[in-house]
UniProtKB/TrEMBL annotation:
The keyword rRNA-binding does not apply. The lineage of its organism: Bacteria, Bacillati, Actinomycetota, Actinomycetes, Pseudonocardiales. This is Maleylacetate reductase. Residues 11-154 form the Alcohol dehydrogenase iron-type/glycerol dehydrogenase GldA domain. Keywords: NAD, Oxidoreductase. It comes from Amycolatopsis sacchari. The keyword Mitochondrion does not apply.
Length: 353
């Protein structure tokens, strides 16, 4: 097949090293920022304070109020604080929740973001924002929310508990897997996605065995960076659609939901996506990527049953209805029967068919 693609290179600077957090002052100065709103979750307020202490007067205000899925009220409060404090930038320390709140501020104010990620979710590499209203989560793309500088320091991930490290890594792997069969996957994105799968799958067992193993942490974070890039460059398919619905409808935990759903979606989609299948087989060193990822996650202690996470048995029909309510990209057409079977398996936590 001859090549036919569009590849857009996004702006943004990435600094990656064990100890890279010590370079924050020079990175902030490089952007000319003088009054930062420092965003984190309440649990990571102390870490944010420690990281920003060397910034001295360049911190206008700490704002440790990020929560999962960026509720509208939480976003409005952060935007108001940024304006009242005369902030000229947002520094986000943490996972997708902290970075998501900084993005909500950037979307309204245009302020540049410096991100210091501490999970593998990958939001720091995407122009995607999300906001949760009373009954549903809305997402969109806006180049203004793409962080200007991302400082990756694997040392900051050693405190991520082994269980969350595994599921967060699977969340990253899901970005790369769906990027590989995305309608807008370019050859460069495919290379990044495939190497991210290889790096994450090899690193996660080492991270789970020894959360302080900095080489393993470095490999996993490298995989997460590439996965975030792939997510930001492509259109996601059935897997991300289902996880979005499941998270929004039943308030299921983000990374864990991705972990339980991914093997089932791949079992359904890969027969219709030969290039993605070949790339995953090669990256994982297996002839059955779906079964391999199910075993990998389960053997590292991940919960594979959506029911155990809190999804009600009669929730399957709700998800099926929502999934059919709006179109989405997918390498193959999906019937209601397919979806019922897939969700039933993920609900029970059985291996993919
Ligand atoms: P999270 O940011 O909610 O973090 C989970 C918990 O772990 C939090 O309590 C946090 O304080 C804690 N934590 C984070 N890093 C830690 C560390 N190193 N040590 C100890 N504790 C740590 O979880 P997440 O999975 O990173 O992000 C999920 C959110 O991000 C979801 O809302 C999801 O929709 C969003 N997301 C958005 C994008 C995007 O492109 N916009 C991409 C991926 C995820």
């Amino acid at each position: 097949m001859s090549l036919d693609f569009v590849h857009e290179t996004r702006p943004g600077r990435v600094v990656f090293a064990v100890g890279a957090r010590h370079r924050l002052p020079e990175e902030v100065d490089r952007l000319g920022l003088r009054r930062l709103l420092v965003v984190s979750t309440p649990e990571q307020a102390a870490l944010a304070a420690e990281l920003t202490a060397p910034l001295g007067g360049r911190v206008a205000e700490p704002h440790p109020h990020a929560t999962m899925h960026v509720p509208v009220a939480v976003a409005e409060r952060a935007v108001a604080r940024a304006r009242e404090a005369g902030a000229d930038g947002c520094l986000a320390v943490g996972g997708g929740s902290a970075i998501g709140l900084a993005k909500a501020v950037a979307k309204e104010t245009g302020l540049p973001i410096v991100a210091v990620p501490t999970t593998y979710a990958g939001s720091e590499m995407t122009p995607i924002w999300g906001l949760t209203g009373a009954d549903r989560k809305t997402t969109g793309r806006d180049p203004r929310v793409l962080p200007s500088t991302v400082v990756y320091d694997p040392e900051l991930t050693v405190t991520l508990p082994p269980g969350l490290s595994v599921t967060s890594g699977m969340n990253a792997l899901a970005h790369s897997a769906e990027a590989l069969y995305a309608p807008d996957c370019s050859p460069v994105t495919a290379l990044a996605a495939a190497d991210s799968v290889r790096a994450l799958a090899a690193a996660l067992p080492r991270v789970a065995a020894d959360p302080g193993d900095l080489e393993a942490r470095s490999d996993a974070l490298y995989g997460a960076w590439l996965a975030g890039t792939a997510l930001g460059s492509t259109t996601m398919s059935l897997h991300h659609k289902l996880c979005h619905i499941l998270g929004g409808t039943f308030d299921l935990p983000h990374a864990q939901t991705h972990t339980a759903v991914l093997p089932h979606v791949l079992a359904l989609n890969l027969p219709a996506a030969p290039r993605a299948r070949a790339a995953l087989e090669h990256a994982l060193g297996t002839e059955n990527p779906a079964a391999h990822l199910f075993r990998l996650a389960r053997d590292l202690g991940a919960e594979m049953s959506l029911k155990a996470m809190g999804m009600p048995e009669d929730g399957v029909e709700t998800v099926v209805t929502q999934a059919f309510a709006a179109p989405y990209a997918n390498p193959r057409p999906v019937t209601r029967t397919d979806l019922r079977r897939l969700l039933g398996d993920a609900l029970a936590g059985t291996a993919p068919a």
